[in-house]
Amino acid sequence: MTSIQEKEATKEAFRKYLESSGVLDALTKVLVALYEQNDKPFSAVEFVQQKLGGPTVSEYEKLKAEMSDLQTKYNQLSKAHQDACKELIELRNSQPVKVCKETIDDETSKLDFDDETSKSYAS
């Protein structure tokens, strides 16, 4: 195949893809609706976006601002969480570990000593 034939084959494959996935029908319906509007909208792009289910430009800007605010809040909370974890680690490392007598007794009862070793520890 020559490069021209390859390009044409690629275009045809893409066209078939758009047709089989319903994109051509959806765009055709939106463009017909735009054509049939008596009062043409100020922004044809916004009209198409709205008809295809997307947000308007103003809605998009609102969502973008909200996302930015939420990202800032997330970063602050993440930093606070990291700081709290560091503080917890420091507190754990700075205080001596207290071991209950019951814990020690439980652990020694689990050890498997022979009789002579047990007697030497008992005395």
UniProtKB/TrEMBL annotation:
Keyword entries, A-Z: Coiled coil, Nucleus
GO cellular component: a single term: nucleus
Keyword Nucleus: yes
GO MF annotation list: transcription coactivator activity
Coiled coil (residue ranges): 60-87
InterPro entries: AMY1
Subcellular compartments: Nucleus
Family: Belongs to the AMY1 family.
Entry protein name: c-Myc-binding protein homolog
Organism listed in the record: Kingdonia uniflora
